[in-house]
What does this fold into?
Amino acid sequence: MPTLDDLARSRTNLGDLDLAWLHALVSDWQLLADLSFADLILWAPARDGGGWLAVAQMRPTTGPTSLQDDVVGMMAGPEDQRLLEAARDERRIWRESDPAWTNGVPVRTEGIPVTRAGRVIAVIERCTNLNSARTPSRLELTYVQGADDLARMVAEGTFPFPDEAELVRSPRVGDGLLRLGKSGRVTYASPNAESAYRRLGLAADLIGAELGVLTTGLCASDEPIDETLMVVAAGRAPRAAEVSGNGSIVQLRAIPLIVGGTRTGALILVRDVTELRSRERELMTKDATIREIHHRVKNNLQTVAALLRLQARRLRAPEARAALDEAVRRVGSIAVVHETLSHAPEDTVDFDDIADRVARMTGEVSAPEVRVTPKITGSFGLLPAAVATPLAMVLTELLQNALQHGFPHAAREPGVLEVYVVREPERLTVTVADSGVGLPPEFDLDSATGLGLQIVRTLVEGDLGGRLRITPRSGGGTEAVVDFPIGSESLPDSADDPSART
Ligand SMILES: Nc1ncnc2c1ncn2[C@@H]1O[C@H](COP(=O)(O)OP(=O)(O)OP(=O)(O)O)[C@@H](O)[C@H]1O
Ligand SMILES: [Mg+2]
It folds into this structure.
């Protein structure tokens, strides 16, 4: 079936704003169909040769349809055309005096002009199957009265509500309906709406109660009162809100009714979403939970870093300040890993991203006169979280050492600081090479007492199960090489790639 957009653009002269209005109308007119117990057809003036084109259609879920066939894309017959033109020219809801007989069913048709910015841009034809008309119950009377208010609002250009945030799925009339009077008191409650409020813990009568006050009173006391809830439950604003109380969650949607400039009350659609919300919570998978935890760990680490930074500022002794600044840097590089993990769909991360950020961070904190920016060659690829955290710290320390000890003074020429990565199926080798002043003559890795290299060694030999070497670089400077085994499970999934299985 052609869409409203297709039809409107190819066969009518509707402008963008008019079309947007019709979209808003159509996204919400199930309500009008259900309250009217009637079929709706949206007709727009056709571009060539006059006539009216059916651009959308809606059947009621509350009663039988009177239109067995789809009419979208068809042109109006002469009878319909007269009705539509009357509604447009008179700018009011136009009702045929006699029911028309379609397929042996008496159908009452009405034309509801759709007004936007003072112009009639389309007409809704409402077709009510009179065969199903019984002695109307209180429910039916309330529905039809609500439908008439809504229809008048469509004709007056006050419905749909243009600013209302669209709901993924608005509650339907059948989910539960309340009618509020002018003062915000309940004048009618459908059985489903009654049940929903009972589940929220309401013991008293709904009829006659001020819904805004009553609803906020039912809210679970440990939850903060939702400001919009009061406004919505009082029927003052065209919005949606959720109430939770007594272990149940109920969604409310208010449709304020303002007809001819006076407030006549509101319709409140009510839907019990307890089951839905609990299923959604279950669907929040393990992965999502893990990501959330990484996110929190990152936040906590950033708080720790901020505290250390504050403390560093209060210290006078430069050495003490430097020590705390280093701690800030170390915590920061762990935070980077958790941050990346919090965006990762699984428990593996793209370490190239982390390496870039770690390199940039160390580059930033190095003295401004040191004109060296780390350059990374080769690719780390995906690594499991258990490898990423220690490796990020190792990289931070090695880069820091190169900047701090390799290039202690302002360099006349820009130095070389490079990270080479070689990834083999089972092994990862990372080399951090600088063209700086080189290691001090008495340097011995095994007896090095600096904290930085102690951390590196512990992580490389302990956490990564690998080796660390620090040697003079051929051509001057220093070279630190870390290599460690990586399990094949940390490789990108190649199960779908037949060539990988040979
Ligand atoms: N790239 C390098 N170039 C020159 N010397 C280095 C290099 N890397 C390490 N060193 C030497 O090794 C020593 C030990 O380094 P280590 O990182 O353990 O301690 P630190 O950097 O002095 O202090 P910390 O890292 O705890 O702030 C350094 O003091 C430095 O003399
Ligand atoms: Mg160091």
Observations:
- The first strand starts at residue 38 and ends at 45.
